Amino acid sequence: MTHDLTRLVEHVRHQSRACHELGSPFYGVLLAHVADDVEAGGPAADVLRDRAGDPGPSAVALRLVGTAHRLALAGQAPDLAAHLPSTGGDGDPDAAWPALRTLLETRAAEVRAGLELAPQTNETGRSAALLGALLHVVGPEPLPVRLWELGASGGLNLLADQFRYVAADGGTWGPDSAVVLDPAWDTVPGAAPSDLSVIERVGGDLSPVDPTTPEGALRLESYVWPDQEARLARLRAAISLASTVPVRRVRTGAAELLDSLELAEGALTVVWHSVMWQYVPRDEQERVTARLAQLGALATPTSPLVHIAFEPRRLAPDGDYRFVVSARTWPGGQELLLGEAPAHGLPVSWGTPG
Ligand SMILES: C[S@@+](CC[C@H](N)C(=O)[O-])C[C@H]1O[C@@H](n2cnc3c(N)ncnc32)[C@H](O)[C@@H]1O
Fold this sequence. Notes:
The protein is an alpha/beta fold. It is 38% helix and 19% strand. The termini are far apart.
């Protein structure tokens, strides 16, 4: 085996272990078969060989299974679909492997084309963190809200006020909705208003997905791991809601999007983002921070600004990364650490993370 193929096997095995640990035993087992096949010089090696030098972050293993998943979800790989939980199959990853192997062997060109697409996810569970933070800071009689999201992917979290939230203590917030986040929080934020009027929804992303198109919806669904059925169910519910609520999706980097934002009299301007900051280059992060401070300096009680983030951060210099919910409000510019949650946003525990 060449040096690059040895690295590739290591990468696929690493991804297999990660899937086991992060809640997809199905991909854990399936990717172990893929790694064995690359090692044995089988069809997985043939398909992946050209990408063997890709850096780890390009996640070639997830591109491969995402491509196969997309074909199965689209009804174009029935033998594989017969074993995927997401397509009503038997959920047996050992039985799925021969079907995947045949797919790699007989439709290599299609699979190679699919490998060009970077994995793209939009996790609606993170609305629990984003919207919950907003409920914490808006007060009982909020101004109309303008929602601007950085790294919005499909913009599904811009529909956060349209979801229903169920807290572990039995409290609820939000309208009746096809999207129910349960449990979203340990408790409903204390000062939460009974509803919010959202008058503007703008999502910027370098690689936006339009979930209201069949291709966009399929793309988002295909990167959810097929045995994570609760995630897939809430994604599908949010996708169906997306076609009823207008969102302006812009292909742009975070800093450029903010350059086009101005505050508005009589409205609360909200800039939020989740699990995207680590992908933003340092100089662009600095531009975003500077622009928020610039807008913040212009904020008044009748044109306030809030910056909400749900991002991994270290609370101590040598501590672990934790997914922290924070909010900074202007006038004033004080940052509050409001709570923390697992990576997919559910459930949020409120209180300053210790
Ligand atoms: C892990 S996804 C998270 C998507 C969404 N925020 C969520 O939580 O479901 C990260 C997103 O950030 C976007 N992204 C990465 N770098 C960016 C940048 N510099 N400006 C804007 N978006 C960016 C990616 O295209 C991707 O959609």
